[in-house]
Specification:
- By secondary structure, the chain is mainly alpha-helical.
- The chain has one domain (2-128).
- 78% of the residues lie in helices and 3% in strands.
- The chain has helices at residues 6-24, 33-49, 57-83, 91-128; strands at residues 3-4, 52-53.
- It has a two-stranded antiparallel ribbon.
- Helix 2 runs parallel beside helix 4 and helix 3 runs antiparallel to helix 4 (91-128).
- The longest helix is centred in the C-terminal third of the chain and has 38 residues, at 91-128.
- Residues 32-110 form the VanZ-like domain.
- The chain crosses the membrane at residues 7-29, 35-53, 60-82, 94-111.
- Keywords: Membrane, Transmembrane, Transmembrane helix.
């Protein structure tokens, strides 16, 4: 069963709007562009992972990897070049998108696994008493 955490979804949508503004605007230039790519995809991937509450962490992981890492991390760079011709295509941007997204996903999975393990231990302690 899948449930959606609507507060996390709301934050994700706001972050996505901000990322879209930064990514598709031609008037903005940043000194540390690669760091911005890394941080944006780290944050978006982490938020996306926690939108869904599923029994299987594996399903959420595959969904997040497909949507954020592959479609978002790679597809956004091609879309950015199509939408705004003034933007120069840079393969290093894709690399930083992927690294940020994968790191966000790995940390989310580790946190979720730890959290579920702690809940399981707490449930066992309650049952033993």
């Amino acid at each position: 069963m899948i449930t959606i955490r609507y507060p996390v979804l709301s934050v994700f949508i706001l972050s996505l709007i901000g990322a879209g503004f930064l990514g598709f605007s031609s008037s903005l230039t940043f000194k540390h562009d690669k760091l911005l790519h890394f941080a944006t995809f780290f944050i978006l991937t982490t938020e996306f992972f926690f939108i869904f509450r599923m029994r299987s962490i594996r399903q959420v992981t595959y969904l997040t990897f497909s949507v954020c890492t592959l479609c978002g991390g790679i597809g956004s760079e091609f879309l950015q070049h199509v939408v705004n011709k003034k933007r120069v295509f840079d393969p290093k941007d894709i690399l930083f998108n992927l690294v940020g997204s994968i790191l966000g996903l790995v940390l989310s999975v580790v946190y979720q696994s730890y959290h579920r393990g702690m809940q399981h231990i707490a449930t066992e302690d309650i049952e033993l008493q």
